[in-house]
Amino acid sequence: MLMVCQDHVTQGLRKLPVPHVKRIPENMNISCFFCNQKAKVKLFIPDNHHVMNKQKKRNIRFL
């Protein structure tokens, strides 16, 4: 996950292979990954690892 200001959204998107984007609420004071400006956008890759593990466990039961 990267927290970025409006000036660095494009650079942040380039750092993530398949980014998802959410606005950061105004009441949160988080700094931009690239500078000290207030971050406005959260860029992240969702963690589907736990979902895949559940599916694997289900498949094992039926083997």
Low-confidence sequence ranges: none
Rg (C-alpha, Å): 17 Å
Strand content: 15-25%
Major sheet: size, sense and barrel closure? 3 strands, antiparallel
**Residue-averaged pLDDT:** 78
Question: Helix proportion of residues, in percent?
Answer: 25-40%
N→C terminal distance: 37 Å
Query: Total number of β-strand segments?
Result: 3
Count up the helices: 2
Strand order of the largest sheet: 1-3-2
What structural class is derived from the secondary structure elements? alpha+beta
So what's the overall shape? globular
Succession of helices and strands: EHEEH
Domain tally? 1
Any overview of this molecule?
With 63 residues, this protein is α+β, with helices and mostly antiparallel strands. It has one domain (2-61). 32% of the residues lie in helices and 17% in strands. It has helices at 9-15, 49-61, and strands at residues 2-4, 20-23, 41-44. A 3-stranded antiparallel sheet has the order 1-3-2, covered by helices on one side. It is globular and about 25 Å long. The mean pLDDT is 78.
Q: Which key features would you list for this structure?
A:
2 helices; alpha+beta; 32% helix; 63 residues; globular; 3-stranded antiparallel β-sheet
